Amino acid sequence: MARFIAQIIVLGGQVVARAFTQALRQEFQRGQAAQSAAKTAKEGVKRATTNSMMGISLEEAKQILNIERIDKEAITKNYDHLFKVNEKAGGGSFYLQSKVVRAKERLDAELEATEKEKQQNTEDSADK
């Protein structure tokens, strides 16, 4: 009889230990998901702030300069071309020319932010 009671206690302990371990794993996963969501929200707020300050969104700037990904050479090449084509002296539109300038400024700001982020990540990795 004592043997059966001991087995019941051991099995009960194992069940409780498994449940506790599973609960810890779930809590850890929830913590990671919350941390990821907070980081995404922070980036969204940062991007929205930059959009409102610059007066143009990143996507609109990419469309204006006709680029797929942010590449300094492509930005400069397309900017130079579009700026020259829209010169008022050549019959172009000052409005379009100013949109091209604003698009370049927005993309340059994004490049700068990306470089700062990479630099911070490098410094954080070096500190660890």
UniProtKB/TrEMBL annotation:
<dbReference type="Pfam" id="PF03656">
    <property type="entry name" value="Pam16"/>
</dbReference>
<keyword id="KW-0813">Transport</keyword>
<protein>
    <submittedName>
        <fullName>Mitochondrial import inner membrane translocase subunit Tim16</fullName>
    </submittedName>
</protein>
<keyword id="KW-0811">Translocation</keyword>
<dbReference type="InterPro" id="IPR005341">
    <property type="entry name" value="Tim16"/>
</dbReference>
<dbReference type="InterPro" id="IPR036869">
    <property type="entry name" value="J_dom_sf"/>
</dbReference>
<comment type="similarity">
    <text>Belongs to the TIM16/PAM16 family.</text>
</comment>
<keyword id="KW-0175">Coiled coil</keyword>
<keyword id="KW-0653">Protein transport</keyword>
<keyword id="KW-0496">Mitochondrion</keyword>
<keyword id="KW-0999">Mitochondrion inner membrane</keyword>
<keyword id="KW-0472">Membrane</keyword>
<dbReference type="GO" id="GO:0005744">
    <property type="term" value="C:TIM23 mitochondrial import inner membrane translocase complex"/>
</dbReference>
<feature type="coiled-coil region">
    <location>
        <begin position="97"/>
        <end position="124"/>
    </location>
</feature>
<dbReference type="GO" id="GO:0030150">
    <property type="term" value="P:protein import into mitochondrial matrix"/>
</dbReference>
